[in-house]
Amino acid sequence: MRTSYSALTTYQQCPLRFKFQEIDRIRVPKGLEAVFGAMIHNCLKFMFERTPLYPTLDEVIDRFRTIWQNKEITNLNFEEDKAYCEDGISLLKNFYRLNQPWNFNALELESRFEVLVSEQENEEKHVLTGIIDRIDKISNTDIFEIIDYKTSRRMPSQENLDKDLQMSIYHLGISRRWPHIKPENIKLSLYFLKHGEKITTSRSKEDLEKTKDFVIELINEIKKRIENNYDFPPHPSPLCDWCGYRPRCPMWKHLYQSKAKEIPGQKEIEKIIKEYFDLKSQNQKNSKRLTELQSSIYEFMAHENVERVFGENCYLTKTLQERFIYDMKKIKEILEEIGKWDEVAKKKQFSILKATKKKPGA
């Protein structure tokens, strides 16, 4: 299987978005944040290109202004357009002030790589691809530094960075290209442009082997879903705000449908949802009516093929739980044969008593 770090991350964040993007190949326009980030990356690449002299700060800013004026996104009002343009210029000015390009030895910019990952059991091979923003060679040392620019505001903790899949895959990429470099001589850094902060991590040989195992596990999970025609479920999160697939996602499409056209039963379902929330906030005597409303909501969801419905000021989401179903008769027979049934049964009884014992005083 041929895949990339970004595709695997998309799958981890939301399997359904992965399906739309990587399997169905449904193309959607890039969001504003993605477009803005791409423009900043373009200017930073230009900043470190020596032809034969490094560009001045004014040249870098002029490049950003030109790219920004020619952007494809046109639905910004004047204030939004001005704010984003000024933000981009500010980021570039601060970065240039702290990182004059002639003080660094940038070996490669936007460097593409491929990593071969092999499964030991069946010798199946997978290819991981990616693009590294910048690779530096630290002067007078044997240290190489991978640098990835981030325009997002949120900075991860050091603990999370030490486990970050992107950094691990990038390390594998540079190790495959230049196998003579020792793992301990590779630094992995994220540079957060909004804060002017760089955080750095590293990987050991053991870390890299764990990364390969994890990547293979993810790939096999994806392949299993495809081969068995399993669902790729949506995972609602704050990242939904930047997702271009919301109008076709079962968690969001009802919101877009209700705005775009008059859906049969829309006004009625809004009343039902409102009553559902009103009753939910009252006492348990309304449980019967809540069950009836829930049934009506499920029917509407099934009819409209959605997994989230929106009322006037609220919404309801259907969640599915996977549970193992056991044949207790067979389990009892097996455990009795090995003399373990009484022990297990006692433990089960005790755990139930323990769990319910606190109920009266809760």
UniProtKB/TrEMBL annotation:
It comes from the Bacteria. Pfam families: PDDEXK_1 (PF12705). Residues 3-250 form the PD-(D/E)XK endonuclease-like domain. This is PD-(D/E)XK endonuclease-like domain-containing protein. It comes from Candidatus Tagabacteria bacterium CG03_land_8_20_14_0_80_41_22. The lineage of its organism: Bacteria, Candidatus Tagaibacteriota.
